[in-house]
Design brief:
The structure holds two protein chains of two kinds. By secondary structure, chain A is α/β, with parallel strands linked by helices. In chain A, about 35% of the residues lie in helices and about 20% in strands. In chain A, the strands form six sheets. Chain A has a seven-stranded mixed β-sheet with strand order 3-2-4-5-7-6-12, with helices on both faces. The radius of gyration of chain A is 27 Å and the shape is globular. Chain B is α/β, with parallel strands linked by helices. Chain B has a single domain, classed as Pyruvate-ferredoxin Oxidoreductase, domain 3, CATH 3.40.920. In chain B, strand 4, helix 2 and strand 5 form a beta-alpha-beta unit. The longest helix of chain B is centred in the C-terminal third of the chain and has 22 residues. The two termini of chain B are about 30 Å apart. In chain B, about 60% of the residues are buried. At the A-B interface, strand 8, helix 11, helix 14 and strand 20 of A face helix 1, strand 2, helix 2, helix 3 and helix 4 of B. Strand 8 of chain A pairs antiparallel with strand 2 of chain B, so a sheet runs across the interface.
């Protein structure tokens, strides 16, 4: 890795590369699309002086990062946008205490909600927490701004947010590679309660210092090349950032552009200078009117959200439509071809062989409410399973079940969580149910991995992010320690047994914990069996197997057929076939 | 070597269903362009959206590329791993752009559960939606070659017919993108796909 070279990297690989080159020695995070691959890529460097870990949740990760940064180490903490909500408690005070070694919090937003439950704009968090935030637009800038982030963090003794988005994280581009260089900082925690212990007497001074620091960073934002003006035709000046900058360069190649790399603190002088030098100002920012509101507050006349939507993700096509609207011209045609009318939708589904399908099928036998959670099992909401009734946030599957159960709601309630989610924020909910004398049935769909984000380890898998064997926490024993008495370990594929168990537990007025244990078939191919096939001659098309919603079972109104290339041999369809017409391929019938 | 000095940006759309190997295909495409000396950007879908749903990947290359995304009706070429998905994304390709489509139908769960139908006239729809269509048995060819997973590389071989990149850069890209033990299979898959599309094109003239 000594010579200067270039490679095609995703934004996430580029963030990891930037952190590696910047000499990061501690990295922590919790998986969440679109941020997940960063820590995986960083761990893959197998750098001896670099510790990478999956923390149980984002709050833990940020606290781990804060501790490490106070020793002088450079630290990266990664999460998706909603993860910062979980980490908000340490985040809001970390700006007060500040850091010693550089601390970058990589937060990946998901405009358009490709893989998320909301579309929150992390730039608000930067202002809320009084922390600078950088916004790279592509993989090249992802690496560069990651490195700048550490410099800025150390220069101003502040945590820095680097805000990614789905399109930055998952787009690839050419990135220059250089060597890893450790920063010239002394490692060793230096006792200083006035800086690191925000008891009220000290925190009040920290609060004053925080404002001073923010002003210094504002001066930096107004003078550093991280924010830049590209003067061109001065009849229109566009203020933009992140991927919107890329689309602006495609759609308005002739316009002058103020390209913001640091979204906060606001570079007021640049806003003023730019607006004085162009005839018209248009603010193009994805999601909220973060810049626009401030620019207007400065007394600068501009267009923005009166033309540009504050919902959803941008593309250059959307901006081309906005340009047409802005100029009063006819918009380009973005519509699908005529032949695409009436095509069947193809939403994401639980994979063939997914063990969650078994438990959802068992739950379909009951008129109960199922409070779900964040993970692959969220896909249990889709027909034909339709067995998730609510989702709110990580951990909410347990706690909302208890809330419903304690309300006058007459129906029985089942709360569902995954194994990684259990360690993330399920345990406190379980404590609450036992402590407050709940009676809901709580199911952990334990597929032995963090599946949705691409199979990351967690405290229940027995392996660390670095690939080392480690303690493997037992969900059942944790349940016991939380005060749950009725605990059952089951195989989610045993539909009949699980229906009987649920029936029994619905009648009992105390909490039940069911751990439905079977590996994600994408992660553990050792459980795969021969593909199943349907005896087409005898099949009466009753629909039992089709109602599993398995993508490997294709049914076009005639006789269902199992696609052998997709089938993992999970045997669920065999279990639900009342005529016993589904067998292993080639097996005697 | 191709002309890397022109300002022209070439856009490639790849369509299919999550799990069909589209990420690898887009990596090969992008690396071929990189080896030819171009600036490259790609975009792919990960996470929730990947689980068996409609998937689109986009690759753009040229002297300087800003956006990784492709505007409707501007893609130079299109490859689709599934027929319905091809029609769903047909509006990305510009008139006359080569469209290489695998002769594969994957029935979505929405059809299996009776919510909608897989169009019986899909082949007619393809013929109407694409004016430069190469429908190839990519999956069958990959099975013949010994691994159904190579269907994506068969398709990339077909796609290469519509792009002005030298064969060496494609070979180099396949080499850097697949595991060594699968290299020979994939190079063969690439050649077969290229031959199939060349044959279908000369048959169409």
């Amino acid at each position: 890795m000594s010579e200067l070279k270039q490679d095609l990297l995703s934004g996430n690989d580029a963030y990891a590369r930037g952190a590696w080159e910047a000499g990061v020695t501690v990295a922590a995070g919790y998986p969440g699309t679109p941020s997940t691959e960063i820590l995986e890529a960083l761990a893959a460097y197998k750098q001896k002086d670099l510790h990478c870990e999956w923390s149980p949740n984002e709050k833990v990760a940020l606290e781990v990062g804060a501790g490490a940064a106070l020793t002088g180490a450079r630290v990266l903490v990664t999460m998706k946008h909603v993860g910062l909500n979980v980490a908000a408690d340490p985040f809001m005070t970390l700006a007060y205490t500040g850091v010693v070694g550089g601390l970058v919090i990589l937060v990946a937003d998901d405009p358009g909600m490709h893989s998320s439950q909301n579309e929150q704009d992390t730039r608000h968090f930067a202002r809320f927490g009084k922390v600078p935030i950088l916004e790279p637009s592509d993989a090249t800038e992802a690496k560069d701004m990651m490195k700048r982030g550490f410099e800025i963090s150390e220069q101003f003794k502040t945590p820095v947010i680097v805000r990614s988005t789905t399109r930055v994280s998952h787009s690839r581009g050419l990135v220059d590679l250089v060597d890893r260089e450790l920063p010239d900082t002394k490692i060793g925690f230096e006792k200083n309660p006035r800086q690191f212990v925000p008891v009220p007497a000290f925190a009040r001074q920290m609060r004053v210092d925080l404002e001073k620091r923010l002003h210094q960073i504002k001066d930096f934002a107004e003078t550093d090349s991280i924010n830049r003006i590209e003067y061109n035709d001065k009849s229109l000046g566009i203020i933009t950032s992140s991927t919107s900058y890329l689309y602006v360069k495609e759609v308005w190649p002739e316009a002058s552009v103020l390209k913001l790399g640091m979204a906060y603190p606001f570079a007021d002088k640049l806003f003023k200078e730019f607006s004085e030098n162009v005839d018209n100002v248009l603010v193009i920012e994805e999601l909220d009117d973060f810049y626009e509101e401030h620019i207007k507050a400065l007394g600068i006349k501009c267009d923005g959200k009166n033309f540009v939507p504050n919902i959803g993700e941008f593309t250059q096509s959307k901006l081309a439509v906005i340009r047409a609207k802005y100029e009063g011209k006819e918009a380009p045609d973005l519509s699908p071809v005529a032949e695409a009318t009436g095509l069947p939708m193809r939403p994401p589904t639980l994979c063939p062989g997914c063990p969650h399908r078994g438990m959802f099928t068992a739950l379909r036998y009951f008129d109960c409410i199922v409070t779900g959670d964040i993970g692959c099992y969220a896909l249990g909401v889709a027909p034909p399973l339709s067995r998730i009734d609510t989702i709110l946030c990580m951990g909410g599957g347990f706690t909302m079940a208890h809330g419903m159960d304690r309300s006058p709601e007459p129906k029985k309630v089942v709360g569902i969580l995954g194994d990684s989610t259990f360690f993330h924020s399920g345990i406190t909910g379980l404590c609450n149910i036992a402590y407050n004398k709940g009676a809901s049935i709580i199911i952990v769909l334990d597929n032995r991995t963090t599946a949705m984000t691409g199979h990351q380890d967690h405290p229940g898998t027995g392996t660390t992010l670095m690939g080392d064997p480690t303690a493997c926490l037992s969900i059942e024993k944790i349940g016991e320690a939380c005060g749950i008495k009725r605990i059952f370990s089951v195989d989610p594929r045993d539909i009949d047994d699980n229906v009987q168990l649920l029936k029994q537990e619905f009648e009992i007025d105390e909490p039940t914990l069911i751990v439905a244990k079977y590996p994600c078939v994408l992660n553990d191919k050792s459980v795969w069996e021969e593909a199943r096939e349907i005896d087409e001659e005898l099949c009466v098309s009753c629909g039992n197997c089709v109602s599993l919603g398995c993508p490997a079972i294709e049914y076009n109104g005639d006789i269902p057929k199992i696609e052998p290339l997709m089938c993992t041999g999970c045997s669920l369809c065999e279990n639900v076939c009342e005529l016993d017409l589904i067998h292993k391929q080639g097996e005697e019938k | 070597m191709s002309n890397t000095n022109s300002d022209k940006v070439t856009s490639v759309v790849l369509l299919g269903v999550g799990g069909q190997g589209i990420l690898l295909a887009s990596e090969i495409m992008a690396r071929a362009a990189m080896h030819a000396g171009f600036d490259v950007k790609t975009n792919e879908v990960h996470g929730m959206a990947q689980r068996g749903g409609s998937v689109i990947a986009q690759v753009r290359y040229g002297k300087k590329v800003y956006s990784p995304l492709i505007a409707e009706r501007t893609a130079d070429v299109l490859a689709s791993f599934e027929k319905v998905e091809a029609v769903r994304g047909a509006h990305y390709v510009k008139p006359g752009g080569l469209c290489v489509i695998a002769n594969t139908q994957i029935i979505p769960t929405t059809v299996s559960s009776g919510l909608c139908d897989y169009p019986k006239d899909i082949d007619e729809r393809l013929a109407k939606a694409f004016d430069n269509l190469s429908l190839i048995d990519a999956q069958q060819k990959a099975v013949e070659l010994g691994n159904v997973k190579a269907a994506n590389v068969v398709l990339m071989g077909g796609l290469s017919v519509g792009l002005d990149l030298p064969l060496e850069v494609w070979h180099e890209a396949v080499k850097t993108s697949v595991k060594p033990k699968f290299l020979e299979l994939n190079l063969k898959a690439f050649e077969e796909g290229r031959a199939m599309t060349l044959a279908s094109q000369s048959a169409g003239v």
